[in-house]
From TrEMBL:
Protein name: Hydroxymethylpyrimidine/phosphomethylpyrimidine kinase
A molecular function (GO) term: phosphomethylpyrimidine kinase activity
Similarity annotation: Belongs to the ThiD family.
Keyword line: ATP-binding, Kinase, Nucleotide-binding, Thiamine biosynthesis, Transferase
UniProt keyword annotation of Magnesium present: no
Annotated organism of origin: Thalassobacillus cyri
Annotated Pyridoxamine kinase/Phosphomethylpyrimidine kinase domain residues: 15-258
GO CC annotation: cytosol
Pathway per the UniProt entry: Cofactor biosynthesis; thiamine diphosphate biosynthesis; 4-amino-2-methyl-5-diphosphomethylpyrimidine from 5-amino-1-(5-phospho-D-ribosyl)imidazole: step 3/3; Cofactor biosynthesis; thiamine diphosphate biosynthesis; 4-amino-2-methyl-5-diphosphomethylpyrimidine from 5-amino-1-(5-phospho-D-ribosyl)imidazole: step 2/3
Its EC number(s): 2.7.1.49, 2.7.4.7
Catalytic activity: 4-amino-2-methyl-5-(phosphooxymethyl)pyrimidine + ATP = 4-amino-2-methyl-5-(diphosphooxymethyl)pyrimidine + ADP; 4-amino-5-hydroxymethyl-2-methylpyrimidine + ATP = 4-amino-2-methyl-5-(phosphooxymethyl)pyrimidine + ADP + H(+)
Amino acid sequence: MSRPIPCALTIAGSDSSGGAGIQADLKTFQELKSYGMSVITSVTAQNTTGVQGVHHLPPVMIKQQLEAIQADMPLHALKTGMIADIRMMKVVAEAIPYFQAPYVMDPVMVATSGDVLMESEARFYLREHLIPLTNLVTPNIPEAEMITEKNIESAADMEASAEHIVHGFGAGAALVKGGHRMGEALDVLYDGKKMYRFTSDRITTKNTHGTGCTYSAAITAYLSQGVPLEEAVRRAKVYITAGIRHGFSIGKGNGPTNHWAIREEGARDECH
Ligand SMILES: Nc1ncnc2c1ncn2[C@@H]1O[C@H](COP(=O)(O)OP(=O)(O)OP(=O)(O)O)[C@@H](O)[C@H]1O
Ligand SMILES: Cc1ncc(CO)c(N)n1
């Protein structure tokens, strides 16, 4: 009997420049050989310098996209990215349990450029109603601080924050990402029982547009293939680090990561 095709879904905003959001997620699913599907929440007019405009889809249209997938498509893992307001979050929160698939939440609040992508009051709804539905939440340090309302100054604080998100707010697991602040690119994963650390050398680059989206999409792709959580994060970290190392200097601002970089690294490794 042939194995089922792994199917992954992203519920997120569209980034016209193709480096973050839905576009980053679908490129990542494709690269890692999971069949990718999308539910678009908002359309952004965006490039490497920032977000010039945002149009939110009516919640009823988000619901219709979710129902279209539920009615017909197999699904083995899903992620959420930009969900800008409470009305949209409600629709998503109602739909998630019906999928019966691992759920990864990237709690997108602010773009790399500093533009706000989620209404500030919506963070309480996200914390109370969406986080308890997750198998994994992947905040960066500012997002983890926003969720727990506690400052993070050290690696130990990152671990405490991950524990707080799991035991205090009901996430299945939490991956707190230190890319923005810590010396090396340290991420900590807490799965409710054990703490894991993932590190890579910090790469000096301004081409980090969409790193968080791409990382959580890679984790989702591996989960859709039945890879256990810790191993999925480990492999996704390799994927995003290669993507950052081979990021593209395109546009006038923060260029995008390279979604096919692991192919380049594979090729390079074979040469040496
Ligand atoms: N300069 C860097 N060098 C190496 N790894 C990095 C660098 N910046 C971020 N990372 C890593 O990339 C991954 C994505 O984390 P990051 O903190 O950038 O997410 P994010 O802030 O959610 O992204 P975004 O800016 O897209 O919202 C993490 O594993 C992080 O450690
Ligand atoms: C649509 C969208 N989602 C997420 C991010 C976060 O990087 C972004 N810049 N744009």
